[in-house]
Design brief:
single chain; alpha/beta; Rossmann fold; 7-stranded parallel beta sheet; 7 strands
């Protein structure tokens, strides 16, 4: 029986460390039949994840790039196109919260760092694949927003994720005449290795699982979601 993503090519950013969402998303898409191009900033990290995926029988191209650098983004996408001749699915997962402090203590560097890593990277990647998807008859872009924007001490990150929602809806409008669907998954707290290590929760029952996030991505990437675009899909576990 063919997987629901058989014959599709998925480009997934932010596939770096073990125990994180990127690793699980990439494996889930591969298990459902997609060929993969995965990327992270560090070659050794992304190649380690690629090796794991290949051991499971996946076809994987591993790529290292700084996704806030326009020329590196262009080269990454060109390499993926050279390998596969198409990109059907883009998952903009790269980014994350790295500056946690009151707004008045955020430096300009803090602000730029969070917006570049979380918003600029998604814009550059989306813009880069958009023309290929348009010329190829369509595709789907899946961004990562977040559930709720009211937490204190993360002003730059919150603003970046609000920008992701605007980017998602704008690209959905611009892509609808070309068969390009654009949506976002909006997780709450997720049981990643880094979250567990830094927050040391006593109970994970209310947290979303990485597998929940990955299945939401796979659904949005599939033909089953053909009627969905411009939407934020919350995946919060029981932590409503």
């Amino acid at each position: 029986m063919l997987g629901v993503l058989e014959g599709k090519v998925a480009l997934v950013t932010g596939v770096s460390h073990e125990g994180q969402v990127g690793q699980t998303v990439a494996k889930t898409l591969a298990d459902k039949g997609a060929a993969l191009a995965i990327c992270a900033r560090t070659q050794s990290n992304v190649e380690a994840r690629a090796k794991e995926l290949r051991q499971s029988g996946a076809r994987v191209l591993s790529l290292a790039a700084n996704l806030t650098d326009e020329s590196q983004v262009r080269q990454l996408i060109e390499r993926a196109m050279s390998e596969y001749r198409k990109i059907d699915i883009l998952v903009n997962l790269a980014g994350g919260l790295t500056r946690y402090k009151p707004a008045v203590e955020h430096s300009l560097d803090d602000w730029n760092h969070e917006l570049n890593n979380n918003l600029l990277s998604a814009f550059l990647m989306s813009r880069g694949v958009f023309t290929y998807m348009r010329d190829g008859g369509g595709g789907t872009i899946i961004n990562f927003a977040r559930a709720g924007l009211s937490q204190a001490n993360m002003v730059a990150y919150n603003c970046a994720k609000a920008g992701i929602e605007a980017l998602t809806r704008t690209l959905a409008l611009e892509g609808r005449d070309f068969g390009i669907r654009v949506n976002a998954v909006a997780p709450g707290l997720v049981d990643t290795a880094s979250n567990i290590s830094s927050m040391k929760p006593k109970d994970l029952k209310r947290w979303a699982k990485r597998e929940h996030i990955a299945e939401a991505v796979a659904f949005l990437a599939s033909d089953a979601a053909a009627g969905i675009t411009g939407q934020m899909i919350p995946v919060t576990g029981w932590g409503l």
